[in-house]
């Protein structure tokens, strides 16, 4: 037997030996869904993320080794101080072993520091700032769905191949917004592209006319929109300014299916979007999405699908190890491929980034759409090695330490 085939068997044996001595010490397996429940991100996260976590728990019959699985929920209002206080309360008083979703990036970064100190598990689905699995990585935290690096790199590459004109950025003033613009500008520079200008806007902005006029007068040929939960508003107003009719390509840099639904196909049609999930990518994705729709009367966003996948993978690792110890469970999660309705052949790397296929999709025209949620068509599957930051460029200390 070759060394490469022998090593996985040794690893499996060590995991089995460890699980034989392990136990679920708490009286319940508690997972807290910490997210934006009523703010600008609530439609793509919020109650849908809570439902996704519950659906994952139901696949285990609501119990593991006789211990009930409890799904808690809390609204951090996208404020890092509130997020930290809630996470601390969950760890110190309520015995929560894992936190899912994470919500906005600034809040998730704050929670990650508490996770690091308490050795609890953090299943990041909502937050997309790439630092969570780069320079701010933590041993028991995993970034599951999208991130600023993969989204920006793939979208800029696809658009630049079709439109060589300069770009103008309208960016929400939050951590993920700044991160995705920085990654997009870096990719543009690498491709020889130009930036005509930028505008940073506060979250919750209702009137984008000033920023759209700046873009219009800048000479830009591509308008990159990354205004978080306000993307729908700015896209509608861009249509009122007839920017597309004037030859400007409108690109939502971070967009969910729920955002397309809110804007409507007549406005969003033709836009290119990078996503980690949509309901028709596989039969398993469609089946799970239909079950989610039956409960929420909306198709799941990629974030909500990621919550389901991450919680399911975590619970499987708890079951496999017979333990609720964070490092023990995380070791099992990293040793086990992710195979579910969200991802096929997913792997948790040394930088705590779960890598998987991403999908470049195009928003359908109204004539192409078969029903209210038939919104996008597949343009290309982007494999992990083309989507995510190479480990050779990682600033995660765990990579240098060998994972």
Under CATH, the homologous superfamily of the largest domain reads: Response regulator
Total count of strands: 15
Write down the domain tally: 2
CATH class of the largest domain: Alpha Beta
Nearest-integer average pLDDT: 91
Amount of beta strand: 15-25%
- Unreliable residue runs: 1-20
C-alpha end-to-end distance? 26 Å
Order of helices and strands: HEHEEHEHEEHEHEHEHEHHEHHHEEEEHH
Strand order of the largest sheet: 2-3-1-4-5-6
Identify the quaternary structure here.
Answer: single chain
Structural class: alpha/beta
What Rg do the Cα atoms give?
21 Å
From the coordinates shown, what is the CATH architecture of the largest domain?
A: 3-Layer(aba) Sandwich
Would you mind describing this structure in some detail?
Mean pLDDT is 91; it is low at 1-20. With 403 residues, the protein is α/β, with parallel strands linked by helices. It has 15 helices and 15 strands. It has helices at residues 3-21, 46-58, 80-92, 105-118, 148-160, 175-190, 209-217, 231-240, 257-263, 265-268, 283-296, 302-321, 326-335, 384-387, 397-400, and strands at 29-35, 63-64, 67-75, 98-101, 121-124, 141-143, 167-172, 195-201, 222-226, 249-252, 272-275, 347-348, 354-355, 358-363, 376-382. β4, α4 (105-118) and β5 form a beta-alpha-beta unit. The chain folds into two domains: 16-146 and 282-357 and 388-400, Rossmann fold (3-Layer(aba) Sandwich), CATH 3.40.50.2300; 149-253, 3-Layer(aba) Sandwich (Rossmann fold), CATH 3.40.50.
């Amino acid at each position: 037997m070759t060394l490469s085939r022998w090593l996985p068997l040794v690893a499996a044996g060590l995991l089995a030996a460890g699980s034989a001595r392990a136990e679920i010490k708490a009286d319940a397996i508690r997972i807290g869904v910490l997210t934006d429940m009523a703010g600008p991100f609530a439609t793509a996260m919020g109650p849908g993320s809570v439902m996704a976590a519950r659906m994952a728990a139901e696949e285990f019959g609501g119990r593991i080794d006789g211990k009930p699985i409890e799904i808690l929920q809390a609204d951090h209002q996208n404020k890092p101080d509130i997020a930290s206080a809630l996470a601390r309360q969950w760890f110190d008083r309520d015995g929560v072993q894992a936190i899912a979703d994470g919500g906005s990036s600034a809040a998730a970064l704050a929670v990650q520091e508490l996770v690091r100190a308490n050795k609890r598990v953090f299943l990041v689905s909502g937050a997309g700032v790439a630092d969570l699995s780069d320079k701010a990585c933590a041993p028991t935290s995993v970034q599951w769905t999208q991130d600023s690096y993969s989204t920006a790199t793939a979208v800029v590459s696809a658009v630049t191949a079709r439109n060589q004109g300069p770009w103008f950025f309208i960016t929400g003033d939050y951590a993920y917004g700044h991160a995705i613009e920085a990654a997009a500008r870096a990719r543009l520079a690498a491709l020889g592209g130009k930036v005509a200008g930028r505008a940073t806007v506060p979250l919750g902005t209702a009137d984008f006319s000033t920023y759209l006029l700046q873009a219009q007068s800048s000479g830009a040929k591509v308008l990159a929109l990354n205004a978080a939960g306000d993307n729908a508003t700015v896209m509608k107003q861009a249509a009122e300014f007839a920017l597309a009719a004037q030859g400007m390509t409108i690109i939502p840099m971070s967009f969910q299916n729920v955002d397309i639904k809110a804007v409507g196909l007549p406005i969003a049609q033709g836009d290119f979007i990078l996503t980690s999930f949509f309901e028709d990518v596989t039969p398993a994705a469609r089946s799970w999405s239909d079950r989610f729709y039956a409960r929420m009367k909306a198709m799941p966003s990629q974030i909500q699908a990621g919550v389901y996948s991450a919680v399911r993978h975590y619970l499987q690792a708890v079951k496999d190890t017979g333990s609720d110890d964070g490092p023990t469970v995380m070791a099992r999660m990293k040793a086990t491929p992710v195979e579910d309705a969200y991802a096929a052949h997913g792997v948790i790397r040394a930088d705590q980034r779960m890598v998987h296929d991403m999908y470049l999709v195009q928003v359908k025209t109204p004539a192409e759409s078969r029903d209210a949620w038939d919104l996008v068509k597949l343009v290309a599957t982007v494999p992990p090695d083309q989507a995510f930051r190479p480990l050779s460029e990682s600033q995660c200390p765990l990579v240098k330490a060998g994972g």
